[in-house]
Fold these 4 entries.
Entry 1:
Amino acid sequence: MEPERLQKILSQLEMEVGKTIVGHKDVIRKVLLAFLSGGHVLLEGVPGLGKTLLIKSMCRALGLSFKRVQFTPDLMPSDIIGTQVLTESDGRRDFQFKRGPIFAQVVLADEINRATPKTQSAVLEAMEESQVTVFGETFPLGSPFMVLATQNPIELEGTYPLPEAQLDRFFFKLLVTPPTPDQLREILHRTTGTEINEPTPVLSEHSVELIGEMKLLLRQVIIAPPLEDYVVRLIHATQPTVEKGEAPIPEVREYLRFGASPRGAQAIILGAKGNALVEGKVHVSYEDIESVIYPALRHRLVLNFQAEADNVDADKILAAVVKKIPRD
Amino acid sequence: MLGGSFSKGALPERVVNDLHRRLRRHGWWDGLLKFSPPLLAFSYLVFTFFMASWIGGEVTVFTLAASLGIILGLFLHFGWTNLSAASVARFIDDRVDGKDRFVTLTTIDPTLYPSFLIHRLRREATGFLDRINIKRDFPYRFRRSFFVSLIGSLVFVLLSHIFLETNLYSSPQATSIKELSVLARELSQSPRFAELGRSLNDLESRIREQGLLGAGNEDLVQKLLRQIRQQLAAGGRSGEGRSDLLRQATGTLQGLAESMEKGQGMGGGLTARQPRGKEGAGKELIERGDGGGSEDSTMGGKTKQGGENSVQARMEKSGKDRRDIDRGGKDRSADEIGEDKGAVSKEEAQGKGRKDGHEMVAHGEMPERYYKAGERGEKGIEGARFVIVELPEAEGLSEVSGAVKRGRGLRGPKVTVSNIPLPPRSRRDAPLEKQRIPLEYRGMLR
């Protein structure tokens, strides 16, 4: 595949999603990058910001099979994965596996932090290995497969925060912010009138081969060794304890319990490669790396109590890290 | 290629390499300019010390070579390690807004990536080449370090110069040596006074070799210079004046040479003795290590006889001093010295080693070699040469010396006397001693 073609497809996807979503261009792009990288995305934002609509529009534009699961405390794993049901045909009764919504190509796990850890963990194997095991039988999931989860940072009563292990499986964690006044005005125009804009599918369920080429091209994007070293130094700088004593960055030393995992470095590199392709380049630049540092690492840093007490979030720590770590 | 824009066929990697070479040359220049001023300043200082005879030629050469080696090492170190190809590529990227294309092309392994992507990246980078002119965009500029180094070195040289002017050039010793040198050169150019000029030149060389001029000999040199100048002024009128000049100058020169010989033999005289650690507390700097008689004999100018025949006056003065010594109960005549020598010889025979400075003097009439300068022996004044070496504990002998008379005598602790060869004077623990000893034995003490 030519880079120009991929760039054109991504531009079309962004444009189609933009028909229903006002603003959030960066979020849309990052979701597309995660999709091309084979990762999953966690969107966080207060209710009413269009998280679910964004994901639905994205799936419609991608033309892939889509399922939505509303996570609640009484949601069972079988409700997601599927279960054996007793069926009768020709007078003969038999158990048959009824596939759950996880078998769709794109799964929306809405308010994922409201389900119990048991149910949340049911998604773990699916997210990591693109397969599920039911009664000892393993079933492969669709290809491509992507989980888009949302969670609400408020109303935390009765919620079950995602464990670090599960958070680490998300490629990006994107923050959905409130719209600006202009964006809000545009939202009102689009949603309170008679005109309805629906995204047109750019790809289809049968575009698996094309998507595979796109994924391959993304991984072929050139990255220079000095830039890889930069990513390594960034990840290493988030470790509160290093081999030779404490971390050199005070914020890291003071507010972090655990630093970013190697998955974070992988996410940065792949996200930067995807960003380079979207920008029409065939090589990664420092700007590409810095554009994906925050979504790739913010959910991989484990803050300590002091950070919560001082109201310090992961983005502030990452800002300090980026500032302290030189490019060369 | 370095001078202007690049052709469209030029490879970006080649541009990076060209710039790399250019910036490395800049780095070499930076190092050269940064380290040269301190080297030159230090060389100036060392050369100044050499010219002032504070350090010898070998020390000068060694010091300069060592400093040159250090500077060269620093220069090579900073010249070799300050720039990488990736850094150079980054400079180009920053200049042409290349979005890290040059860095990527310079550092990647092309075999790891599809060729169509490499070609495309190279094509994109080539498109940026018309934005860059290496000579224009990367000219050589003097770095701040050079100016800091230059200013610092100049300040160092200036302060050193001021310090030396106030402490070295303005000192009477240096002035005397300088005047001596000038006069020697002037006289050497005249056939009539060539011999005297050579003698003065030799004297100046000896003074420089032995270090700073002592106070007593400084007066003597000044007197010598004054005599020669006066005689030069008067001697131009008649041939008699010329002979006077030669006679007087030769006499003064001879006295000065004797004084220097004594100083050399005694570790005093022309040489300023250095404090010698703990023992040195009692062995102060003695610039005049000769005895009182010899001092007077060589000085000869304390009576300020001005235009008189200085040689004659000095001889008379010397004889008077000599007689004074002979008359004084504490002064030592040749016989007494001979007796002492005999006593010490007995002690030596008993294995006690040297006791004092009289052990080397034989019994009987004092040999000619113990005559003071100016006293006449069988061979006239030529045969009257001796040196005085005085032990610090030799109170009887020291009392006759001018040094003791002025309260600047040898006040150090007693030095163990034995027949063990004395340590060289260059050692800190070498005993300070004065001892009457024939000139022929002077080599034993060195």
Note: Residues 262-278 of chain A form the longest helix (17 residues).
Entry 2:
Amino acid sequence: MPYISTTEQERKEMLKAIGVESFKELISNIPDKFVLKEKLKLEPAYSEQQVSRKVFQLMNSNKCTQAFDSYLGAGVYDHFIPAAVDTIVSRPEFYTSYTPYQAEVSQGTLQFVYEYQTMICELTGMEIANASMYDGASAAAEAILMAVRSTRKNKAIIAGSIHPTYINVIKRYTEGLEIELDFVDSKDGALDLKDLEKKVNDDIACVLVQSPNFFGNIEDMFAIEKITHATKKGLLIVETDPIGLAITTSPADFNADIVIGEGQALGNNTNYGGPLFGFFATKLSMSRMMPGRIVGETLDVAGKKAYALTLQAREQHIRRVKATSNICSNQSLCTLAATVYMALMGREGIKEVATQSMTKAHYLADEVKKLKGFSLAYPQQTFFKEFVINTPIPAAKIIEKALNHNIYAGVDMKPFGYDNQLMIAVTEKKTKADLDKFVKFLKEVK
Amino acid sequence: MTTTPTIFEKSSEGRKGYNITKNDVGIKLADILPEKYSRKEDAKLPQCSELDVMRHYIELSSKNHFIEKGFYPLGSCTMKYNPKIHEVVVRQSGITNLHPHQPEETVQGALQIMHELQHDLAEISGMANVTLQPVAGAQGEFVGLKIINAYHKSRGNTHKNVIIMPDSAHGTNPASCSLAGFTVKELKSNAHGKVDVEELRKMVDENTAGFMLTNPNTLGLYEEHAEEICDIIHSVDGLVYMDGANFNALLGIVQPGKTGFDVMHYNLHKTFSTPHGGGGPGSGAVGVVEKLTKFLPVPMVSKKDDTYFLDYSHAATSIGKVHSFYGNFAVNVRAYVYIKMLGAEGVRRVGENSVINANYLQTKLKDYFNITHADQYCMHEFVADSSIQKKKYGVNTLDIAKRLLDEGYHAPTIYFPLIIPEAIMIEPTETESKQTLDKFIEAMIEIAHEIEKDPESLHGAPYTTPVRRVDDVRAVKELNVRFPMK
């Protein structure tokens, strides 16, 4: 039997030591009618070789983004991941360890989380970051809940230009809690400032804006900040792309209160959409309102520097029904990948990744808009690495035809309510030759 | 062990740990990024070589306890061995490099795995259908509670807003209820550490939306009156939720869906051997009985003819989404591989041996530590109580836990469940051998003797770990949560 080391003989010895004749006696208090008499209807056990073969065959039937030129984004991005990242996260010392409750034997995990928190604070300009949320969507929901707790106001204003799925998830997290959501219209692919002005008042807990937004466009955060902070208590929550932060305005510069986002782009694979991880950073004044684990530096009894989980009185295992969040297991190993990635890329490398992603996206956009029948959907906006184009034929058709050229052309915007629009994401992985090939395909597509 | 300076202290101006292909498009950033959107000051990430980074994180890794290093008797956490084939399989490009927006015809293999896993989990638990979307046990609880809420709403019973649970429940249970907008009523456990059925009968009324029960419960005891409990809750049209944190004990032995439970979550990172990752990512799939299927999150994975697809057909009744995409796919693949390798007999063997291992430990330790409910056979875990040692010798559970670290063991779960004052919750799991258990028993007995002879020494434990006992209070009082960059 795989992974069970007890032999038949040992099993007998153990049962004898316990003082029973058979296993059945141990479960004699389970009503007999509920004890399974028949075998479960599962496939016969595979050997290690058989299961490898089966999964490899199934996976080979998938067409992964390495075999294709992929322009897919909408929240999950195909940035290059240095080999050293996987070497570290593949170490059992990290991946088979538990949540670092026993600090004395978890200093490896605790220190990397402390470093991760520091890196996220550097990127976001915030003062404190937690050890992760599930993804960008739940991070957004938890940020709203924190704003509601902090301000004791129960109305959240949300930019209509944020990722539609995030809105779906935010609704799940807020609908039982008497939190009122109001959505700001989008105009030309960005938040409509006039509509925002109309919707905010002294009763709001927060304004949540994504920038770059769902369409890839950078929002005018300075203007949004002014409107938000003109209210009595309203907090500004920014959902952002961590790579973009390397070259775009630090959220501290426009006085954001909470900065969150999908962290996958930092050294994590796309993995068919999971695991991802959400980063969550804010000001120290709200540290006791935060969801999730936080690591702090401290000392041991001998006066040596050490790390430990801190501010645990917020968490479910202590505060139970009054906890700031129900989160227990998080996405720790994904943040390890992010930490190693940020350490490798460093101050310059991350700027280079961001710069290449943005310049290459703009090169592609410039070429595409020259094509007959194609145009940029939001030519008046500044976009980062993702943009939306108007297409002469339904986007679904383009996507389908592109498959024959080993191209994932982008995300069809029709399910989100936009006919004949295609959203295209570009990362530093693309070469000019790749981009030119895509343009050539689009030119010929009918 | 020496202190490891942070990665920031190893940084050197101009050093590089990356090797990126040169930009070959001729666009300048300054021409496309307006001044008002551009960053004024760089984020101070470290500047290190690849070797610097490797040495740093390898050094950190050596300061962790992990399963391959030693026994992990962490109650309620099911720290079983994680087969290495899982890791090899999920690192294939056909998994790592799939994008969630790929057309369905290009991800048939992935969808097939999800479809089969939905089936296998449903079969093992006796549930009708399973969603793989929740990414953690607590998110599974949240989804289960949203489903309970949706069920009552669909019947016009909006007044049903109370969830009852025993006082031995995991902290996530009440926290998830709060998040889902329910009011929690706590039920005191009876003298046997179980649900007090008569008290429950008094507690339920027309506002009862449901009951949350961990079975086996957090004392490691099977709630033999589960059927009666379910009947009581069902009699007021409530639903019964099973917290599947302890499902390992029931594998192949009991199908909770056939015993009256309506909803349950599975901790794939416990029961189905996906690694804990130092705190995550886990996976908290949720199973439901037939009448609740229509409320499951969208999308499900379905099959038509020979084609698998993301199924949004129940969107009108679904609770919606809780994750950006389809859950922790790469984690779910590991659970899939695990189940395939076990088969029906293996699954049952896991359940049986987890119970045997726990009872073996309980039997051997009950003369040395007070085990409140040792008059009963436990399931996969049991809870010792060091109140006597505390009273007599001033040695508490924390001391014992820290002393175990010196012996090369991870500490058991301590001070939980809350109904046992000096709780030491021990779960060996089925993957540990008799030899390992015997050695652990020896270590525990030695500690029991040490408590009597030299209680002082335990207060100072641990002595041999990378750092000595850590000052948690200072970590809060002198809050330092980011490295102070120069």
Note: Chain A touches chain B through 209 residues (CB under 8 Å).
Entry 3:
Amino acid sequence: MGLMQSTRIAVKSLAANKLRSVLTMLGIIIGVAAVIALLSLGNGTTKSITSQLTANGTNLITVRPGSGGFGPGGARGGQGGAQTLTYEDAIALQNTDKVPSAAAIVPQVTSQGQVVYQGTNNSYSVIGTTSDYATAYSVSAASGDWFGPGELSGIQNVALIGPNVASDLFQGEDPVGQTIQINRLSFRVVGVLTKKGGNTFGSSDDQVFIPITTAYTKLSGRKAATGVVGHPINNITIQAVDDKHTDSVQTEATAVLRERHRTTEGTDDFSMLNQASLLTTLTGVLAAITGFLGAIAFISLLVGGIGIMNIMLVSVTERTREIGVRKAVGATEGNILTQFLVEAVVISLLGGLIGIGLGAGISYAVSSLGARFALFGSSTIASQIDLGSVLLAFGFSAAIGLFFGIYPARRAARLNPIEALRYE
Amino acid sequence: MNNHTVIQAENLVKSYQMGDVKVNALRGVSFQVQSGELVAIMGPSGSGKSTLMNLLGCLDAPTSGRYILDGDDVGKLSGKVLAKARSKKIGFVFQQFNLLRRTSALENVELPMMYAGIGSGKDRRARATSVLQAVGLGDRLFHQPNELSGGQQQRVAIARALVNNPAILLADEPTGNLDSTASAEIMAIFQRLNQTQGITVIFVTHEPEIAQHTRRIIRIRDGLLAADEPVLAPIVIGASPPVQPEGSAATHSMNGSSELVKVAGLTS
């Protein structure tokens, strides 16, 4: 008897007990749906975070004032509060003899500013920096131009605005050459940046850029910590010449800063964040979370499998007489084994298929709803259903059917036909 | 069909262990059945006749002794070979009919062919149809067991038993659950199969009158062969006034023999 016929018999007997079959399947459906949804959401989120982190290249190192480890978010406040990193530190780092692996040094002063143009009033992140920002983060001006060393040394009130800022304030008008107020100071708009799109960690589309000298003299109002000489800034981004030089840049820059700050390891009043290592840490954490959730989903799949075994055992008992009849008319143990095994596999595969559909639906729904329940800032929860996890879930549900089906099926196959026929 | 020995039982012994007690259900039974015989096995309950039927039907293996079925020594065979013997050489008819529920008459009859791996789906359907027609159920092909009367169910069971062209047809109290009309119908079918096709039929019965439809009665008592006697004046249904069969199956039942010949031609 072929597999086709076994499948037909199996489907028929499953159809005869529709409610029971569906309930049995439910365990597998939920398990597979959970596996698919969690894995795809995990993969998607990992991918989108990775791509956001690497959008600016992985050769960036950020120096922040204050000691202590970097962590996303939490460390920011504490470290930002320490006024120990200065613009003069950034100038010192530009010494190519001491930091040969650096391609660009980008000091930044970040503040929130009230930006006004002809009665339109909005709050934006205002970043005081140098034109090296353009190279390090590859943000070019769509119209106008970045400010140069002249504007920097002249402490001029000039600004580049992100495309969203331009559209918010100017509504189609050409902003270049116009005057805006940032915290009641007048600034001439010298350029509009090209659109870069969303980014978990703040997009230049929504930011205003001014010369760092202007920022620390006129806007930020930061005071250097006692004993610190110079103009305090928020951070310095160092771009290494390539990905392979991030570690050497870190070493070189650390040496320069320790010399200037007269600190040693352990007493440092600055910290460095290597983007590559942040990425590794973050993806590691995400993988762990995904794996953990996946493991929980896996357990529910296992429970579903036990449900199948339970129902199959009941079914074997209930159909003892049928098994006896089949044996009496010539069914071998193999025939009976195949019949019940196919039944279990059909249940679990069908459940698996429905579960894959459901899981895909859930992850799609979560990712489209997730735009509103943003995980980080403006980011969305992306979902990424890859063939691998579908095949995994499908194969696994088939395996569950086989594994949990084999015991009941063997029990059925080994029934003594005489006793089976006598069974009431 | 030339005569040969279909069943050769030699000193069949079967004992069970029931708890601490050893039950000797059969204590050495020997007999032979030639092809084309129509035999009734009788005996009080507990005599071992059901055990004997199980052995003859290859549902069970004897503790000792030899059982040669249609030339093959099947007494000491493995489960798989016994299953094959059941599939190809034996047709079973039960007191309880034992048809598969929620399964049409046609599919019930196709089942043994499926397990024996005979023919394509189309062949099986054709053959099952003709065998069902032969037992007078040509208009009940797609009925499920619960839609059929007891007599009709038993005729489906007979069709199922016949469909693989077995060497013997074994029936365990085939009329035990039927009224006298249906019982006579079943006996008529057995006699017709036996006479027109030479099919060997062995059945167990309690009823002396049913046993009188055969030409030989084997009596079992206390696990031993008590008597093996010919029936001097067998009741032949075709010879007596025709039994009025139930329902619309009547006409089929009456001209069934010609259809059986057709079936025989199809399968030999």
Note: The interface with chain A takes residues 54, 57, 59-60, 79-80, 83-84, 86-88, 92, 94, 98-102, 111-112, 114-117, 160-161, 164 of chain B (CB under 8 Å).
Entry 4:
Amino acid sequence: MPSIEVATYIADRERADAVSSELAAAGHTVCAWQPASELSPSVRVLVVDGLESALDALGVPCDLLVLVDTDEVSMFPEFPREITDFVFKPLRAHEVAARVAHIATFDPLAVRKRQRVLAHAVEAASDVIEITDPGAVYQYVNRAFERVLGFAADEVAGKTPAQLVRSDVHPPEFFQALDATLASGELWRGTLVSRARDGRLVHLDTTLTPVIDRKGQISHHVGIKRDITDELARREALVEANRALEHARDAAVSASRSKSEFLANMSHELRTPLNAIIGYAEMLMEDLTSGSQAHQDLRRIRTAGAHLLALINDVLDISKIEADRVELSYHRFPIQDLIAEVVATVEPLARSNANRFEVVAGPELGTIAADRTRLRQILLNLLGNGFKFTKSGRVALEVERIEHAGGNASFELRVVDTGIGISEAHQQKLFRPFVQADSSTTREFGGTGLGLVISRRLAEMMGGTITLVSELGKGSVFTLRLPADGDTNTEVLRIARRDNQQLVLLIDDHEETLDLFRRVLAKRGFAVISAESGARGFDLAMSARPDAIVLDVKMPGMSGWEVLSRLKLDAATAAIPVIMMTVMHQQELGQTLGAADYLIKPIEPERLVETLRRHTHGPTAKVLVVEDDEATRELIRRTLEHRGNVVDEAGNGQLALDRLEVERPDVIVLDLMMPVLDGFGFLHALRSDPRFADLPVIVATARTLDEAERRSLAHTAQQVIEKSAHTRLELIGLIGDQIQQLLARRDLGA
Amino acid sequence: MSKKLLLVEDNEMNRDMLSRRLERSGFVVAVAVDGAEAIERALADPPDLVLMDLSLPVVDGWEATRRLKADARTRAIPIIALTAHAMEGDREQAREAGCDDFDTKPVELTRLLEKIARLVK
């Protein structure tokens, strides 16, 4: 233990001696009552009796150990910083020695240095740090206070925040709550708005901490405040920018949709007269001997018509692809069947330029899961190009199945020709829409140049690629690569995101179960993705984040329970409701592991739909149900509420009009046959009122409507559901679906 | 005896052209200009097959098909949907309404005749 020099100033002689001998026994050098001026510079510690005397000794560059009465401490709520330590009276010599020993082990210089560093850190902190007394008078503010609020330390002295930085932004209750929190000894966190010296409002992210003294009284408040004014402004600007972006996106989505709808309509309008042109030309040709001038002319009309039709189809196709309106429909089929079909279609074309056409197909090609129509379209396009640009040469379709490590397989379909070939410069442009390789090509060979663009996009949508190798004058090889097991999940996901559908993940190793449930759920407006094993299901849940998961318990490999517990352990998937399918009652296990619900096999598809509806929430709405039959009304209300909607009711059209005056719903569900004012009368009144001219109405009626009624409703209601065609439960399910579709459209800004 | 077709088509030129071509191919052709008329004619004088345009006034082709297929008197009559729409969904919707086959316009006569032959024995 280091021995040091100690000076004591203790009034009671007896106790002073006891202290001195205790310190001497510990190896320290002790002097008593040495006047400050005569103190040796090597004295480290002053032991002083009473706080009063300690204040006198504050200037001495030594550690101060002060002997104090308990009441004395409360009289001096602020301990002078220079006091190193204190000992409570009645005095016990060994306690003083213990404190001195403690101080002796400190390097006083290091302690001071640390205090200086701390003081400096507080002073230089970028956050405002302030200390106020219980009367809220400022005792200390650091430099950041002046930088943020503009008041210098000397302007602050003796003032309270209310006098200095009051902004009048907060109501009195705000400060009452703040004071109550602090008075209870709790710290207070929140945003305070203060007024700076120049009148600016400053937003301060604030923590206020009460400092409690030894008697349990609040001696100070320490406030740490960060200026978040700029941050808030940035955040607001960001929110504003996001809002503007959302508006722009909504407008673009809606514009793109109108464009695609326009094109679809236009295509109908263009094809109808074309139908007549081609048809009449063919009819006249049948009447004329072939070879005659008129027959040749009619052939030209028909050929031009057919060309025009191909152009319209291409433009429509690319517009649909660009507007994201193409939906693939996957089927598994032997690829050999499709090849035979395509070959039969192109055979007449193959002969036209005196070309040799060969099909080179490997054995055991097996099946492919793809959109058959679209795959045929791609092959016809590639082969069509081959025949068009090859004269007296060879065009071949080569088909090969490639097995990959890991059990995956893919198909490579190559169209190889010995035609005119494509220069490297033109190859670059070939797959870009509306940029033709060479305008002279168009003049000579016709076409929109969109065929390849469409083919490549379609191939990509099916998870494949189209690549090209070509040499000018020698010929070209177009290679289409497609996975043998096209993934329908990707397509479903794309549509679900586009149309805002509820996404359900089915995990079951039985293909028939998957198939059945997939069809049932798709019909009821759910988007369904599926996995045939627990491991794949878990991965798919992680990547797709579905709205709900339906999980089979008994699966080879990873069992349903294991999948469930892994889903619940991962923060990314923990919140997704999981519905278990079991053969036995294992509700408890399910609940322990966090299943939202469970269904016992064999499962009624309708039960599955209902259970899913309970656990998924689409967009929800305020619905006004207008129906005179109380039981039906109640059933509709309960079902809609189950799906998260807020439901208001009215017993007839007149009561409904009254309700509308009180509250405007998002959508009305309307019965037609009602007393007082029926559905037609209600709709008439509703649509005559400009406030409600565009309020969506879903008509649900028990009667079969006649033509006049249907026509009238077509103008006044968004959707008509005839109850006779459905069971009551189905009907109510349909109403719910219609509401969700209306909302989804509204959310998309369409 | 020649087979009787009911052609439902609202466009006058197409109706005329297609009915004449079908007559040349040996069919007896009755025409209707909308879905409601189609149902009336099918009930009054049941044809061997209906060629149904889908976008029709009054009662559209889908609805007319649904009703023909819901009625025991007309359920057995095969229906081929004809549409100028090339939208994917149309094919599905036509099948769901109960159409037995589907063809796009402009009509390719040989293809359509094949489809008719498959459905009319």
Note: Chain A has six domains: 5-119, 126-227, 248-322, 331-483, 488-600, 622-747.
